[in-house]
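Chapter review. Work through the record for GntR family transcriptional regulator before attempting the end-of-chapter questions.
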Amino acid sequence: MKAQAASADIPAPSREEEQAEVIRRLEEDIIFGRFAPGLRLVEDTLMQRYGASRHFVRQALFQLERQGIVLREKNVGATVRFYSAEEVRQIYEVREMLTRQAALMIALPAPASLIDELSELQRQYRGRADARDMRGIHETNDAFHLALFSACGNPYLVRSLQDYMNLTLPMRAKNLADSEGLALSRRQHELMIELLKGRDSWALAQLCVDHMLYSKADYLDRIAAEKPSQ
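Structure tokens for GntR family transcriptional regulator:
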């Protein structure tokens, strides 16, 4: 009886919370590679998978279309956004230029406050990695990079970088679930923090660019191995 009473005190999730949960689960299925690039997203299948209404599923598809990871086409419906090899190369060309410029603009040696902030985020990142918390890994990874690049002092550049980080999300997030990619990411984060304590801006910038190449190569390999589903 006590257990029943306790459960009765737990409020039911609001419509906004239910909608956010459907968006979160669909986003994770895409960015962590459970749904392959080009896969057709059938509303009835998603309703069953998430135990959600058609309205919530459609709203989730609209939201992820705005984020650029779902594509909706007439007479086709919704699919996981597929980027061609040429599109991937072009997108990463821009992201690499923005990343290099932001890293070069960070004054070295970096202030202790930045080192402390990044060290704490890296501690959280390691904890999420050890726990295999995929969502937590993704969120702390992005928080680490945004904190790092914010030190360039140009919020417009940081906003552009964030836009391209979001654009490449389907290409890079799957690697955070890969043990080799995750281990490499952790090592490179640690080295970034060490380079921030020195004066070699070019080494820091090159490392930040190199940090992106594993996920880029992995995505190109994946799309070469499998054609988009029709």
